[in-house]
Amino acid sequence: MASGNLTHLTEFILRGVSDRPDLQMPLFFVFLVIYGLTVAGNLGIITLTSVDSQLQTPMYFFLRHLAIINLGDSTVIAPKMLVNFLVSKKTISYYGCAAQLGGFLVFIVGEIFMLAAMAYDRYVAICNPLLYMVVVSPQICLLLVSLTYLYSLTTALTVSCCVFSVSYCSSNVINHFYCDTVPLLALSCSDTYIPETAVFTSAGTNLFFSMIIVLTSYFHIVLAILRIHSSEGRRKAFSTCASHMMAVTVFYGTILFMYLQPRTNHSLDTDKMASVFYTLVIPMLNPLIYSLRNKDVKDAFKRFLKSPCQSFKLM
Asked: Engineered SS bond to 73: which of 36, 93, 107, 149, CB 3.0-4.6 Å?
């Protein structure tokens, strides 16, 4: 439906990871494997932390919800991306694009603050072990997770509405493999100052506050570990937060790499590569990080393999 030189778009075209026809099938199989490992790994973490009686602690409660978020984030992106590797016309409907953007924002903001909640949990476990079950009680855990999801949903709705409040004209080719804020706003033919301000303010504020929580928690954790006299005690204390430290470093490193680039060197292709990492690769890596380096999870997996029926009866 035309109005002057404006057109109400009914669909967008996603350019994908690469335009090269010869790379479509190899990339399809690469990302199919990544998504398959992501689903298997995160469902495994969700199952084990739900059914194993020895994993019913605040740390594994937060880990379960991180796995739910990782699974949701990759599922919002990967299936459509995989289909587009196999078809010549890589389209997504206008409302499908809005839904994908909203879903992506819910889970990415959720991951930012779930990692912050997990850092706080590790801080209490190492710095105040005697008060751990009081300070991080089941009620507090449920409150933190509920607030994370509520805030993520509110942020996603607000930012999505801002992005889709602008006018989109005849150009409908998104230089990305999913509907993201920056490439969508780049297509607009109306003033994007307000939505761009909303997007970057939201992203900056979320990163700032979550990183303050993470850095403050780890500053106190490091001080507490240095005060432990025995090397065995230091090793044990460090091992309780090593997996989370690795996950945080990979996630925030990727996000900061993308957002702190100089504007002159900034390109949508660079964003695309960083996006592959934090929407698809990190959700695959997190279950590996938390299982391969975690004796409790490995022991729970062995118990589950020995007696899966008995494990489900414990629920």
From this structure: 107
d(C-alpha 269, C-alpha 192), whole Å:
21
Query: Angle formed by the axes of helices 94-127 and 231-259, to 10°?
Result: 150
Kindly tell me the burial class for residue 234, based on how many C-beta atoms sit within 10 Å of its own C-beta (0-12, 13-18, 19 or more): middle
Alpha helices by DSSP H, 129-259: 132-135, 138-163, 181-187, 193-227, 231-259
Of residues 101, 108, 98, 39, the one with CA closest to residue 69? 108
**Strand bridging mode 6-7 / 11-14:** unpaired
Task: Tally Cβ neighbours within 10 Å of residue 224.
Answer: 16
| CA geometry: angle 101, 102, 104, nearest 5 deg | 65
Rounded Cα distance between 140 and 148, Å, is: 12
Confidence of residue 304 (pLDDT cuts 50, 70, 90): confident
Give residue 25's pLDDT band: very low, low, confident or very high (50, 70, 90).
very high
Distances (CA, A) of 223 to 150, 240, 247: 33, 15, 21
Residue 261: pLDDT band by 50, 70, 90 thresholds? low
Residue 309 has pLDDT above 70, yes or no: no
Q: What pLDDT digit, counting tens, does each position of 190-218 carry? A: 888 888 998 889 988 999 999 999 999 99
Question: Which residues have a Cβ under 8 Å from the Cβ of 168 and sit 6 or more positions away?
Answer: 7, 9, 187, 188, 189
- DSSP states along 143-179: HHHHHHHHHHHHHHHHHHHHHTTS-B-S--EESSSS-
* Residue-wise pLDDT tens digits, 93-126: 999 999 999 999 999 999 999 999 999 999 999 9
